[in-house]
Amino acid sequence: MAKTLCLLRHAKSSWADPALDDFDRPLNQRGRSSMVPLGLYIGEKKLYPDSILCSSAQRTRETLGLLLPWLRGEAAIRIERGLYLASAEELLMRVRRVEDEASCLLLVGHNPGLEELARMLAGTGDVFATSAMQEKFPTASLAVLDFDAPRWADAVPGKGELRAFITPKLLARA
Fold it and tell me: What is the Cα–Cα distance from 23 to 60, expressed in whole angstroms?
């Protein structure tokens, strides 16, 4: 059974309260608004995860919460502190431990680790998506990678096929 990994960078966060710790920063209005077109895209493409891993930071939890109405099914959701500002290597180790029954995994996290993980895993794929992802991985962006592998442990660098890379700007043009 093939595996699909959806890597979602949290939506735009607020810097309005300089006294807030980075971990506790909420989304700003632009960030909240960006989730509607992304949710519509996910529903249109039927990217329904069986399993969801989300950083425990405020902005990632809010991003996921705003996306949940568009996700169908009974996805197992895990909110994990270890995903907060994790490196690409740490994220990959966590992905490789996901239960193999899950065919589609959504990981909601932060840069630079998330962007580095996407670049590390993508070996082939859509030329335009690859070019856009190499250029920039902005907030509320989604990379969709397919693996021709029966187990998450087989998700290794260079073996993913980048099916799509979606940004808020791209969705605004659609």
Answer: 10
* 53 contacts 6 by C-beta, under 8 angstroms: no
* CATH class as words, domain 3-173: alpha beta
- pLDDT tens for 14-58 read 999 999 999 999 999 999 999 999 999 999 999 999 999 999 999
Q: Are strands 104-109 and 76-80 parallel, antiparallel or unpaired?
A: unpaired
pLDDT at 20: 94
Give which of 38, 26, 20 is closest to 62, Cα–Cα.
26
Q: Decide if 54 contacts 91 (C-beta within 8 A).
A: no
49 upstream amide cis, omega within 30 of 0: no
Domains of the chain: which residue ranges? 3-173
In this predicted model, what pLDDT tens digit does every residue of 135-169 receive, in sequence order?
999 999 999 999 999 999 999 999 999 999 999 99
Quote the DSSP letter at residue 163: E
Q: Is 97 left (phi over 0), alpha (psi -120 to 50) or beta?
A: alpha
